Amino acid sequence: MKIFTYPSAEAEKRVQETIDRGLGFSREDYDNVLAYIEEVKARGDQALVEYTNQFDSKAVTIETLKVSEQEFREAMTGLEPEFLRALDRSVAQLTRFHERQKEKSWIDTPRNGVMLGQMVRPVDAAGIYAPGAKGGKTPLVSSVLMGGIPARVAGVDSIALMTPPMENGKINPHILAAAQKVGITSVFKAGSAWAIAALAHGTDLVPRVDVIVGPGNIYVTLAKKIVAGTVGIDMIAGPSEILIIADGAANPEYIAADLLSQAEHDVMASAILVTDSREVADRTVQALETQLNSLSRKEIAGPSIRDYGAVMLVPDIETGIALSNRLAPEHLELMVQEPFNYLDQIRNAGALFLGSHTPEPMGDYIAGPNHVLPTAGTARFSSALGVEHFTKKTSLIHYSQGALKEEADDVICLAGIEGLDAHANSVRIRK
Fold first, then answer.
1. Distance between CA 47 and CA 38 in Å, rounded?
2. What is the pTM for the complete model shown?
3. Domains of the chain with bracketed CATH
4. pLDDT bucket at 189, cuts 50 / 70 / 90
C-alpha cells in the first residue's frame, strides 16, 4: 500500500480517483440484465426456474422453488448452539436499535379551522435479497437480518426472501434459521437479476413487493437500478469502503486488520488510512503485508489493497477529517485518543466507529445499526438502510368553510400567476 503526503498533487490525484469511482458496468451487462427481467415478466416462474437450473442448481423445480415447511423444520435440527446464541444476540440488538427509528403519525391544528398531519404506514410487502456466497457454503446470514429486521419493525405484513440455492437445491440452514427468527414469511430459491425481477413484477408463486433491499453482485445491482420506480429500493451500492483516521497512539496491527476486513469483500473494495503519524503509516504497511499472507481470501484482499488502498499522511487530524468529509466513506473509523472530541466535525459517513475497540465488523453483525450503507461518496446525501425504507407518509389536510374563505384569495392569486385557471376556480367556486 502506497504512502502519500497530503495535500500534494500526487495525493490529490489518488483522492480524485477514489471520488470518481462509481458503479462500473458494461453495455453488455445492462442488456443481459434487461433481458432477464423481460423474460421473468413474460414467463414468470418458468423463467425463474430455468435460470436457477442454469446457474445455481439443476435440482430446483417449480414445485420446490418455494422453501417448504418441512425444509424449515429440517434446517433447525443440527444447528450449532454457538450459532443460535450469536443469532439470538444479533436479532435482539438489531431489533432494539431499529425500534428507535420508528416514526409516529401526528396531527396539528396550526390555524383556526385548519387541521394538518401526517400518517406513517408500512408498505404492504417487502423483498429481501441475500447473496449465495460460494454456492451457499458461506451463507450471508447478516444480509437476512439487516433487511428483514427493519421491515418487521416497520410492520410490513409480507416479507419475501430471495437467495440462490446450493447445488443440491436446498437453502443453507443458517439462512433459513435467520429468516424464521426475523419473521420472513416466504423464501424462494433464486438469485441474481431474475430474482429481483420476480420480486418487482411478481409471478404465480412470488408475490409482487413494494420495496426491495439487500446487497448483491453487479447483475443484482443493475436489476435494482432498472426496477427502481416500479418498486422502492434501498440504494445503488458499489464496492465496500473503509477509511480510518488514526493518530500516533493508534495500534498499527488493529488498523491493518480493519483495513483488510473490508478489502476481502471485493477486489474493487477501497481501504484508506489517514494519519498524522509517519510511524503509524510505516508500521501499518508492514502489518498489512504480514496479515494479508494469512488470509483465506488474500487473492481478493491483495489486489484491493494494491489497486484501491492508500495511506494519506496529513499534517493534523483536522486535515484528515476534512479529507474524509470529501470522500464520504461507507465506513469511517476514528481511531484517535479522544474520538468524541471530533464528533461534531464529521459530516459525511455511512457509519462512524469511535475508538480503538470498535472495529467495523461489530457493526456488520451485532452492534445494532444497519450495515447496508451508502457507498461511492453517496453518504453526502443518503443514509443507512432503516425502518423508514419500509414506510410511506401520507399528508392530512382539512379546512373548515371559514378557514377556506380566510386563505382563498391567496390561493387564487398564486394559481393565477401560474396560469392555472381551474385551480383558482376550484377555490373561487367555494367562496
1. 10
2. 0.94
3. 3-21+238-358 (3.40.50.1980), 27-233 (3.40.50.1980), 400-428 (no CATH)
4. very high
